[in-house]
Amino acid sequence: LLPYTGMLPLEIRWYGVVVVYFIRNAAQYFIFSSNQTLLNRTVDPKYRGRINGLAMTFGSTAKAVGPIGATMVFAWSLRDHGVLPVSERFYFEISALCSAAAAFVSWWYRAELTTLL
Question: Tens of pLDDT along 7-50?
């Protein structure tokens, strides 16, 4: 949504940016809370501390490494290597494939999770 705020009139453009970031942050908090709730309800209480620690470790690592890797892939896609048919959309296509894979995995395991809850 953020790139489309550039099409707003200059007088209200920053309001659009604030609204987009508000939606993004609200979604991030809802997702974090939901993940923690599912994690705590599906893990044996004996291992709950370890699993929560691992989840926080992997989440923090992804927040640190993700932007660096995404920037490198996006910069690589802007250059013409001639190796693969890549364009400036390459990073976004990779992101869409990763999101689709995550959606498929969550759909696949939904029956098991609903029986645990």
Answer: 888 888 889 889 989 998 898 888 888 888 888 888 888 888 89
Output the six-digit token pair for 8.
């707003």
Instruction: Report the C-alpha gap between 8 and 98 in whole angstroms.
Output: 30
pTM of the model: 0.55
Number of Cβ within 10 Å of residue 56's Cβ equals: 11
| CA atoms in the 13 A half-sphere facing the CB of 83 | 6
Residues with Cβ within 8 Å of 105's Cβ and at least 6 positions away in sequence, in order, are none
Hunting for tokens 């599906």 — which residue is that? 42
Distances (CA, A) of 108 to 6, 37, 105, 111, 112: 38, 19, 5, 7, 9
